[in-house]
Amino acid sequence: MALETLAQAAPVIDGKFVLYVVLRILHILSAIILVGGLFYSKTILVPAGVDPYAGNRQAWARWVGMATLFLLVSGLVNFMSIMNSAKAAGTPLPSTYHALFGIKFLLGLFLMFLAAILAGKTALAEKFRKRMGSWLSVAWTTSLAIVIIGALLRTFPR
Q: Based on the structure, what is the number of domains in the chain?
């Protein structure tokens, strides 16, 4: 590979670049916290007959809230950046991209709802927790779908 090609491929490290890297890291870490907690509850705690939130519901609820906030903010900024880059390049993203993003976004909102309601303190939360194993299976399936769609979205040219 020629040096000119390498130089063109290297990112410009400026404030905007650093912001996007930090937001991407926050997005990934928040997803790890949210999905990891649900996965651990589903595969380790619930099968062992342990209530995942016994004495720790409030602490987990705070983590769910923070992860949700970071996922929404970083995801929105990332999406706007991708849209602006495509517009600036004069190559709009295909409708397939938008459809996949829309599905991923709705699945993400659903997953955040499940995590929040399972950690909640309302009567509705109690009803959901009575079927904890089932809802955790739904959450895990939703998480897998989000990861698959995210991987597909990364294949579109930027």
A: 1
The pair phi, psi for residue 12, each rounded to 5°, is -85, 120
Rama region for 90: left / alpha / beta (φ>0; ψ in -120 to 50; rest): left
Q: How confident is the model over 111-124, as a mean pLDDT? A: 96
Biggest CA–CA distance in the chain, Å, is 64
The amino acid at 84: N
Tokens of 107: 């699945």
pLDDT score for 94: 93
51 confidence band (pLDDT: 50, 70, 90): confident
Owner of token pair 């976004």: 105
CB 82 within 8 A of CB 76: no
Residue 114 lies in a domain: yes
Residue-level pLDDT at 7 = 54
Radius of gyration of the chain (CA): 19
pTM above 0.90, yes or no: no
Residue 67 domain boundaries? 14-153
Q: Which residue has the tokens 């517009």?
A: 87
